[in-house]
């Protein structure tokens, strides 16, 4: 017997409809590429998203055609989120920090029909457009007054003249909720990038889950600043969840330096912000010398790479801001786990609570986890044993776009490429990427743990740990360190700093001071590049 409830497909257009009707006057504030601050409301987003949909229809873009963006976090990008997906096309957010060759490859692989870009990326588009044969339309996200003349880009239109004159009414189409809505290529540190192709259904389920009290606890009382880019896994789904709850949204545009982000948090009374650790490092660095405080920020989600304990403690103890440590990946839309306490932890001391809060957290409903040992058998959730982490759920990929890379699943489970332990309460702790884990004398050493200890030292700005070949132990860890400007610390002092903080045999064999640590397009440390940089390095103990 079937249930007798109404059957209504879960479609992204319904989010912006809802935000318009119930939270029409909630604000959307954007720092623009032009440098000024732009303000309008969810009602305006809805109206202009419908104009975008009409403009797309006018260009004869078909259902499921890909519309690409190269854009910062801002209101026009938000309108594309709803106008493109809502009208049945697929929004392809491209990461502008990738190499131009890779961007041209991605645009062709996705068969993008149209590219909308912020003027910051004009030189990039000029460099690649001749290599993107599928793109028929180019739109610069600006008004006609800012449209560059003689750009060399065929038929370049300004966004405002393209969509501005369109009717403000539009009947959003109804279709199968499993239809593709947006796509995002993985960072692809090896081989060509592969695309996760999200559906309307996966996006809405993820948006519901992300807003839950044990996840981002988003509400109509929030002023939300996604520093995480809209080109990186849909800014962790925040634009969708914000529409679902009617939150105020604050977009930082291209100004991601500590000063600009801090000012925006204060002027727009931001209560909740989300980003990768490097962004917060810059902001805390800006705040410390002048002893600046937050007046409204009460929580921040930090993820994308391991959040150093020193940062979690600084936010909590010095600024009274709750850090929600999150783990996920492009293939998971991206949220997998998030760290909050359970009822039984409330009576614990602050120190005991902190031990839990440093982990990557508990699974969100909709995410199943398992860890598997070298022999292929599942490992116990004892908080001790680490193994390969597998996931499944309705917002995890089944396969990549165009079947790239074959069937990624093993028995229905997606291999994350991460190594983790899970404790009896279900708290996940990521030890490493499987290719980064260091094997010494048959035991595993977590490079994340050794990096976290290094960055807790006041003179260290950044640290990256890699394994080096060793004749006796197979591999031994060394840590590459970038010092803070003007700070002094020696190799010996840093090695001493490890004593008592980790097992003796896990203390790195060496510290190597470097000027920079190579970062990939999503701000993660590129260990492959670091290993190349250190190819002539020899261990002192080998
Ligand atoms: P991406 O698909 O670019 O978002 O990268 C996903 C990968 O980032 C994961 O598989 C992890 O290796 C890493 N990652 C994300 N969040 C965390 C975290 N909180 N701690 C450690 N690693 C993380």
Q: Which geometry do the CA atoms define? A: globular
Q: What's the domain count?
A: 2
What ligands can be seen in this structure?
Answer: adenosine monophosphate
The name of the CATH topology of the largest domain is Rossmann fold
Secondary-structure arrangement, i.e. CATH architecture of the largest domain? 3-Layer(aba) Sandwich
Main sheet overview = 9 strands, mixed
Oligomer: single chain
Radius of gyration: 24 Å
* Spatial order of strands in the largest sheet: 2-1-11-10-12-13-14-15-16
- The SS-based structural class is alpha/beta
Looking at CATH, the homologous superfamily of the largest domain is ANL, N-terminal domain
Query: Whole-Å distance between the termini?
Result: 70 Å
Please state roughly what percent of the residues sit in beta strands, choosing from under 5%, 5-15%, 15-25%, 25-35%, 35-45% or over 45%: 15-25%
Detail the poorly predicted runs.
Answer: none
Query: What does the average pLDDT come to?
Result: 94
Q: How many distinct beta strands?
A: 25
CATH class of the largest domain: Alpha Beta
Helical fraction equals 25-40%
Q: Helix count, per DSSP?
A: 16
Protein model, in words:
By secondary structure, this protein is of the alpha/beta class. The chain has 2 domains: 20-338, ANL, N-terminal domain (Rossmann fold); 440-533, ANL, C-terminal domain (GMP Synthetase, Chain A, domain 3, 2-Layer Sandwich), CATH 3.30.300.30. 28% of the residues lie in helices and 24% in strands. The strands form 5 sheets. A 9-stranded mixed β-sheet has the order 2-1-11-10-12-13-14-15-16, with helices on both faces. A 7-stranded mixed β-sheet has the order 7-6-5-3-4-8-9, sandwiched between helices. A 4-stranded antiparallel β-sheet has the order 17-18-19-20. Strand 12 (272-275), helix 11 and strand 13 form a beta-alpha-beta unit. The longest helix has 17 residues, at 42-58. The mean pLDDT is 94. The structure holds adenosine monophosphate (AMP). Adenosine monophosphate binds at residues 186-187, 233, 303-307, 325-330, 334, 360, 416-418, 430, 433, 522.
């Amino acid at each position: 017997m079937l249930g007798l409830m109404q059957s209504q497909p879960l479609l992204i257009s319904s989010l912006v409809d809802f935000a318009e009707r119930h939270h029409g006057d909630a604000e959307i504030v954007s720092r623009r590429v032009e440098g000024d601050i732009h303000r309008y409301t969810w009602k305006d987003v809805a109206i202009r998203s419908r104009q975008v949909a009409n403009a797309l229809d006018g260009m004869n873009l078909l259902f499921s055609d890909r519309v690409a963006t190269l854009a910062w976090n801002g209101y026009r990008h938000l309108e594309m989120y709803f106008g493109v997906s809502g009208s049945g096309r697929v929004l392809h957010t491209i990461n502008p920090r990738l190499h131009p060759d890779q961007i041209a490859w991605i645009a062709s692989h996705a068969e993008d029909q149209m590219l909308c870009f912020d003027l910051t990326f004009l030189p990039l588009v000029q460099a690649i457009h001749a290599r993107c044969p599928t793109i028929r339309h180019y739109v610069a996200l600006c008004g006609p007054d800012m449209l560059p003349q003689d750009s060399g880009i065929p038929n370049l239109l300004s966004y405002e003249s393209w969509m501005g004159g369109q009717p403000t009414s539009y009947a959003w189409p109804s279709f199968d909720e499993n239809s593709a809505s947006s796509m995002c290529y993985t960072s692809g540190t090896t081989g060509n990038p592969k695309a996760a192709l999200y559906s309307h259904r996966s996006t809405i389920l993820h948006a519901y889950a992300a807003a839950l009290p044990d996840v981002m606890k988003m509400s109509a009382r929030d002023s939300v600043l996604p520093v995480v880019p809209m080109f990186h896994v849909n800014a962790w789904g925040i634009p969708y969840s914000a529409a679902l709850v009617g939150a105020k949204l604050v977009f930082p545009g291209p100004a991601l330096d500590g000063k600009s982000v801090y000012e925006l948090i204060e002027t727009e009374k931001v209560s909740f912000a989300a980003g990768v650790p490097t962004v917060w490092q810059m902001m805390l660095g800006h705040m410390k010398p002048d002893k600046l405080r937050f007046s409204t920020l009460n929580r921040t989600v930090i993820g994308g790479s391991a959040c150093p304990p020193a940062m979690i403690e600084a936010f909590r103890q010095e600024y009274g801001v709750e850090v929600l440590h999150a783990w996920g990946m492009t293939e998971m839309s991206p949220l997998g786990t998030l760290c909050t306490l359970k009822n039984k932890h409330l009576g614990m001391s602050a120190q005991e609570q902190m031990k839990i809060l440093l982990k990557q957290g508990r699974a969100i409903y909709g995410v199943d986890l398992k860890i598997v040992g070298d022999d292929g058998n599942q490992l116990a959730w004892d908080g001790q044993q680490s193994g390969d982490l597998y996931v499944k759920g309705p917002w995890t990929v089944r396969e990549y776009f165009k079947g790239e890379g074959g069937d990624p699943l093993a028995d229905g489970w997606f291999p994350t490429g991460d190594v983790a332990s899970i404790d009896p309460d279900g708290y996940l702790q990521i030890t490493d990427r499987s290719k980064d884990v260091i094997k010494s004398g048959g035991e595993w050493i977590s490079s994340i743990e050794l990096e976290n200890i290094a960055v807790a030292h006041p003179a260290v700005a950044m640290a990256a740990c890699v394994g080096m070949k060793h004749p006796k132990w197979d591999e031994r860890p060394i840590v590459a360190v970038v010092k803070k400007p003007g700070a002094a610390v020696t190799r010996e002092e840093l090695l001493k700093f490890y004593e008592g903080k980790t097992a003796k045999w896990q203390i790195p064999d060496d510290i190597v001071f470097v000027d920079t640590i190579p970062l990939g397009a999503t701000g993660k440390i590129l260990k492959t590049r670091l290993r190349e940089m250190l190819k002539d390095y020899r261990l002192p103990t080998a």
